[in-house]
Amino acid sequence: MSLIVFTLARFSGNPLDVMLPLEATAEDYERVAKHWGLDQPLYVQYGIFIGRALQGDFGMSWKWPGRTAMGLVAERLPATLQLAGFALLISALIALPVGVLSAVKKGTGWDAAAKVIALMGQSLPGFWLGIVLMWIFAVHLGWFPTSGRGGLQYMILPAITLGWFQVAAMMRLVRSSMLEVLDSEFVKLARIKGLAEWKVVWKHCLRNASIAPLTFFAIIAGVLMTGSVVTESVFSWPGTGLLVIDAVRARDFQVVQAVVIVFAGIFIMTNLLVDILYAYLDPRIRLR
Amino acid sequence: MGTITVPGLPWYSPPRVAHALKQARRYPLIPIFILTFFLVIPAVFAPQVAPYDPLKGSLSKRLKAPAWQEGGSIAYPLGTDKMGRDILSRMIYGARVSLAVSLVAIVVGGLIGTTLGLMSGYFGGRVDALLMRLVDISLSLPTILLALVLVAAVGPSFWTVITVLVVLLWARYARLVRGETLSIKERDFIARARVAGASHTRIMTRYLLPNVVNSLIVLATLQVGYVILLESALSFLGAGLPRPTPAWGLMVADGRELIVTAWWVSMFPGLAIMLTVLALNLLGDWLRDHLDPKLRNV
Q: Do A40 and A146 belong together in one domain?
């Protein structure tokens, strides 16, 4: 991962051309190159890069002078995490009940409606959905502000935009694993015991059926991170997604590197977290 | 085609119409209809169908509302953008762009992926191990970030977008073909071909490939929609096709800051993306169910 980022950053042509004004002399070039360590051979540069990156030091930003790349990311990350968390919450709140319902009432209108929602979720371009939501709820109805960050009302539209795509996939997953569980022996036993149907469905089944969707949570974490790039640029949400776009446009690769590595880190952490949660939810895994 | 001809009855008689309808029901007509009229015909006949030049506009006609709204005229049925260009014409040319990008990307990605997948599955060993690591890496890359960095590095152009898409697409094909090859190569007819003296190349192209073609077609169809979405997202972020190409994603981006004054600028291209992707997904699902039920989880 780090190698790819580093190579791409260097492929893009001499960073000095971007940094220096047109009238810069050869002397200026040399001085600045020395300052940034760009006069060293590439493998030395990579070695230094890795060494510093391990300490969380990605160097200074070029676009925002006087700021470290990591500092910028750290400053913007809470906004992205907040948005992603809220989006996840919204999509789970929609996907779980609808998925369970469509499994329990398989083959009825509920099921068909859920299918339509799932299909729409996979076909709607996220950036366009954001604009449409903005048009309807912010411009026409005036319920929410169009962009920026503030209280809860600022977060609702971006979160729906970001979470929409996940709803579809999550719902399908919940539905199929619920169907499997509903068919199993222990559910029949629970029913024979005379348990209330809602308890059978929402407690016994859902807990067992939530394993597969959980794996998906780890993937979602990655999708949400990259999705935040699109959503944040639609709603001008001041998070890392917006940061990375601005940085890419300005060829500020220190910042791009920092963002990519941090995203990768988050991705790995969620995977670990999910593995731990597994053991909690499914005792069979603990025994193995 | 198994059409039953009922003697003595004209084609419009109720029994024959009912029969024809029943036959037609078996095919995904709505997706095919949407795709032909919203994607294929506009894309192929863009110069003939489009009323205006997609790149030329006149500033005196800027931001005209669609025909049915106040201030709109039938001359510009879907209105004009802020450069006075006809939205409908740009959308028609946009279909051409979307179709070209997705087809080229999928064909190139599919060819690379299939070749590598065949070799990986057939030869096994070190080639296989190396290629599958590459596949894992490629599948775990953060899509949009990678594309942004790549486009920023070499600058936006048609071929940059194709490169980004191919890098993202080939791995799926490689994994699919490898998996199928692994099971097919154990079958008797492959062993017999070897005994008969067929070369490795011949076995791969003449005996293995025809057996994976079904799955390949299904995967490719399912991916056209995905690629159109991805391309439009990239264009929207400014990391896809360069302006002033009439790409749907770019058109939506153009309308973003006009949302208060001119909703139609981004609304119609977005609808076009949604409809085509929806139709492609439906068609892909249908193909999968009929050609290759194994692929359910891809």
A: no
Q: Which two tokens stand for residue A193?
A: 């015991």
Residue A64 lies in a domain: no
Q: What is the CATH number of the domain that holds A113?
A: 1.10.3720.10
Residue of B258 and A29 predicted with greater confidence:
B258
> Which pLDDT does position B107 carry in this prediction?
92
| Domain membership flag for residue A142 | yes
Return mean pLDDT, chain B: 79
What part of B 183-242 touches A (C-beta under 8 Å)? 225, 229, 232-233, 236-239
Q: How far apart are CA B48 and CA B42, in angstroms?
A: 9
Low-confidence ranges of chain A (pLDDT < 70): 1-63, 65-66, 146-151, 218, 281-288
Most confident of A73-87, B58-72, B104-118, B283-297: B104-118
- Residue A51, pLDDT score: 63
3-state secondary structure labels for all residues of B216-252: HHHHHHHHHHHHHHHHHHHHHCCCCCCCCCCCHHHHH
- For residue B72, pLDDT beyond 50: yes
* Cut 0.95: pTM above it: no
For residue A114, being part of any structural domain is answered with yes
If asked whether residues A44 and A151 sit together in one domain, one would say no
More confident residue, B112 or A24: B112
Is the CB of B142 less than 8 angstroms away from the CB of A5?
Answer: no
The amino acid that residue B205 corresponds to is T
CA distance B282 to B280: 5
In this structure, are A204 and A255 located in the same domain?
Answer: yes
| Same domain (yes/no): A102, A218 | yes
The verdict on residue A33 lying in a domain is yes
- Residues of A in CB contact (< 8 Å) with B are 4-5, 8-9, 11-13, 119-120, 122-128, 131-132, 134-135, 139, 146, 222, 225-227, 229-230, 233-234, 244-245, 248-249, 251, 256, 259-260, 263-264, 267
In this structure, are A21 and A161 located in the same domain?
A: no
**What residue of A is the nearest CA neighbor of B252?**
A128
Claim to verify: residue A30 and residue A173 sit in the same structural domain: no
Judgement on whether residues A21 and A134 belong to the same structural domain of the protein: no
Task: Verify whether the Cβ–Cβ distance A126 to B233 is below 8 Å.
Answer: yes
Dihedral angle over CA of B173, B179, B184, B187, nearest 10:
170
Same domain (yes/no): A139, A275: yes
**What is the residue range of A146's domain?**
71-287
- Other Cβ atoms within 10 Å of A193 Cβ, number: 8
- Supply angle C-alpha B245, B249, B254, rounded to 5: 75
Mean pLDDT of B176-202: 86
Q: How confident is the model at residue B298 (pLDDT cuts 50, 70, 90)?
A: very low
At residue B112, the pLDDT reads 93
Buried b or exposed e, range B8-39, using 16+ CB within 10 angstroms: eeeeeeeebeeeeeeeeeeebeebeebbeebb
* pLDDT given for residue A137 in this prediction: 81
Minimal-distance CA residue of chain B relative to A120: B278
Number of domains forming the structure of chain A: 2
* Residue B44 binned pLDDT confidence (cut-offs 50, 70, 90): confident
